[in-house]
Amino acid sequence: MTTIKPIRMLTRRTVLAAGASALAAPALRAQSGPLRFIFPFAAGGAGDALARIVADEVGRALGETTLVEARPGAGGQIGTQAVINAAPDGRTFLVTPVAPIIIHPIVFPQLPYDPFKDLAPISLVTTFDFALAINPETPVKTLAELVTWMKQDSRRATYGSPGVGNLPHFFGALMADKIGVPMQHAPYRGSAPALTDLMGGQVPMVMTTTSDVTELARGGRIRVLAVSGRERSPFLPDVPTFTEAGIPIAGGAWYACYTKAGAPADMIGKVSRAIMAAMRAPAVREKVLGLSMVPTGSTPEELATIQKADHDAWTPAVRASGFKPS
Q1: Is the same domain home to 270 and 198?
Q2: What is the domain range of residue 176?
Q3: Distance of alpha carbon 229 from the chain centroid
Q4: What residues contact residue 128 under an 8 Å CB cut-off, 6+ apart?
Q5: DSSP character at residue 5
Q6: Is residue 209 included in any domain, yes or no?
Q7: What 3-state DSSP class applies to 265?
């Protein structure tokens, strides 16, 4: 038997209520604004480009507009704090390298945040190595020649990095310890200004991410002497590792996405799934590989595990370096 349901009569009140609901949804979205992605270092480098890729892909997947903000300062602490100070509504995100999450809690006793309590993991985004670069006019071609050159004049033993208390900073300190040369650290607000000064001759060398030096090295604007991985970088296959070049050290890092602790779990899940899907998409992978990073993606739980493991692994090395923030 076919049942014919009675047609619901539309009253004036029903029509007005439906109209109000239709108008309310855009109004609420307008009030909430775009999804904000904060990159805690200077704009212009590979990390900033990665943050924009992540923002674009998440926005596309969720049907939202996005805004990327570079908030440099204090080695990434200012941008990180901006996310922690945001409302816990799952609409403000941090796309960051390791340092503000792993290293700063070890070296800054007065750090104004606890990344394990104040941030919610969303997804690992990429992994990468570090590289030591010099100006091509510097009269050395190998790492061994660089060490000799620095020993001849202590003023040459200065290296720039993307900021104080980050992994390139500590990797430089580890190198200094291994070669027995006291190297002066010159922190910058990101890779881009450090490499600009390197090319301009204002700093003798820069330790930063492989991703930030690859294109400049290919163009002959800088010379990369060594990379930090246990194996050669697929992006700079002609450059030896530090170990191959005679200094037995190795290390690597990552970029990841976080939001403020207490954000809605459903929003965290949506963004995590969007990032994982993006890092598997061929077009996105090509873009990320073009930044000299390896696309990954992860669940929030997997990122939390990686965060804890890396904190435990780097703590003894950083403390053994004797670094004290000024």
Answers
A1: no
A2: 129-227
A3: 17
A4: 209, 210, 211, 252, 253, 254, 255, 292, 293, 294
A5: P
A6: yes
A7: helix
- Do both 169 and 310 map to the same domain? no
DSSP secondary structure letter of residue 236: S
* CATH number, position 75: 3.40.190.150
Tell me if 63 sits within 8 A of 274, measured CB to CB. no
Dihedral sign for Cα 58, 60, 65, 71, please.
Answer: positive
Rounded CA-CA distance 217/234 in Å is 14
* Residue 120 resides in a domain: yes
Closest CA to 115 of 171, 67, 76: 76
Tell me how far apart the alpha carbons of residues 77 and 97 are, in angstroms, rounded to a whole number. Answer: 11
Q: Report the domain count for the chain.
A: 2
Residue 287 makes CB contacts below 8 A (sequence gap 6+) with 53
Task: Identify whether the C-beta of residue 119 lies closer than 8 Å to the C-beta of residue 101.
Answer: yes
Task: Identify which of 74, 106, 147 has the alpha carbon closest to the alpha carbon of residue 322.
Answer: 106
Task: Please write the tens of the pLDDT for every residue from 76-87.
Answer: 999 999 999 999
pTM for the structure as a whole = 0.75
* Contact between residue 148 and residue 172 where contact means Cβ atoms under 8 Å apart: no
Residue 235 counted as domain residue = no
- The tens digit of pLDDT for each residue in 282-308 reads 999 999 999 889 999 999 999 999 999
One domain for residues 200 and 222: yes
